[in-house]
């Protein structure tokens, strides 16, 4: 039997609230509308790839979701809770995670120590981290390193890793904090062509194993097709399409937006 329509953001027993819901989300700066009335809902465990030509507003949308910027209109909901006015750390506590930039990796510490520190930050133990870093190994650290296929590099200095392995480490740091919704901003950026397939496999394993919801900005079409359940296509700040990859790519509006650029 079809369920009765519910108030946006409300959950029913048969229909849990979306992991992420954006309602009429807009952001304007200096008179320019950068994000324009974006509305979408990602189910728990869904993999959504956010694509669009350069300057479409993808990073700006990420900033609105993670709380780095405040929208001029609209709402952001995490598992049904309105977090529009919450700061980034409050959203982190609710299970939102964003990949760290390479700079957040301690280059002189080992892979294992880096992950151990991230795990301690989650449990509020970070004030003791320098003392504990030396013994950062533990079941959680080992499990996370296994999952991102870095267990064999656990004793290596983080600064000496290849670009691909650094991306895996950034993912491991994120996982050590136990996120439910992960924002991945161009995970393949700077990664050599030979490492793209491996890293794609790691991201797929992570999402399946942890059953987390993922929102990822990425340009590599083969990566999108391998990972994404749905594509959210942005153009000039607006959402042109939000559908299964084949459907979204066949959309005439999407094709027109990408005219002259590789889809
Ligand atoms: N703080 C800001 N002030 C003014 N304009 C901004 C600001 N941030 C972003 N923009 C503009 O908003 C538009 C969208 O930028 P954004 O970085 O979100 O796009 P993008 O889709 O992530 O692009 P790319 O694929 O090139 O990273 C661009 O024209 C950019 O110049």
From TrEMBL:
Task: Please provide, in alphabetical order, the Gene Ontology terms of the cellular component aspect for this entry.
Answer: plasma membrane
Q: Would the keyword Glycoprotein turn up in this protein's UniProt record?
A: no
Its keywords, alphabetically, are: ATP-binding, Nucleotide-binding, Transport
MF terms (GO), sorted A to Z: ATP binding; ATP hydrolysis activity
**Where does the record place the ABC transporter domain?**
20-261
Q: Which SMART domains match?
A: AAA (SM00382)
Question: CDD domains from the xrefs?
Answer: ABC_Mj1267_LivG_branched (cd03219)
**PROSITE patterns per the UniProt record, alphabetical:** ABC_TRANSPORTER_1, ABC_TRANSPORTER_2
Recorded protein name is: Branched-chain amino acid ABC transporter substrate-binding protein
This chain's source organism reads: Streptomonospora alba
């Amino acid at each position: 039997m079809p369920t009765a329509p519910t108030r946006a953001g409300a959950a029913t027993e048969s229909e849990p609230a979306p992991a992420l819901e954006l309602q009429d989300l807009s952001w304007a700066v200096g008179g320019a509308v950068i994000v324009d009335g974006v509305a979408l809902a990602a189910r728990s465990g869904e993999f959504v790839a956010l694509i669009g030509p350069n300057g479409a507003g993808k990073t700006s949308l990420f900033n609105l979701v993670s709380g780095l910027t405040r929208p001029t209109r609209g709402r952001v909901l995490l598992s049904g809770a309105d977090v529009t006015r919450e700061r980034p750390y409050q959203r982190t506590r609710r299970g939102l995670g964003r990949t760290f930039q390479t700079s957040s990796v301690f280059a002189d510490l080992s892979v294992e120590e880096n992950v151990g520190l991230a795990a301690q930050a989650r449990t509020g133990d970070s004030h003791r981290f320098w003392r504990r870093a030396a013994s950062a190994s533990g079941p959680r650290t080992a499990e996370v390193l296994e999952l991102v296929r870095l267990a064999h590099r656990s004793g290596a200095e983080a600064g000496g890793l290849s670009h691909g392995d650094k991306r895996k480490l950034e993912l491991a740091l994120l996982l050590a904090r136990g996120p439910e919704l992960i924002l991945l901003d161009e995970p393949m950026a700077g990664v050599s062509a030979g490492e793209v397939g491996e890293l794609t496999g790691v991201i797929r394993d992570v999402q399946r194993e942890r059953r987390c919801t993922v929102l990822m900005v990425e340009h590599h079409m083969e990566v999108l097709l391998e990972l994404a359940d749905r594509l959210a296509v942005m153009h000039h700040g607006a959402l042109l399409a939000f559908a299964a990859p084949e459907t979204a790519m066949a959309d005439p509006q999407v094709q027109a937006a990408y005219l002259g650029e590789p889809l």
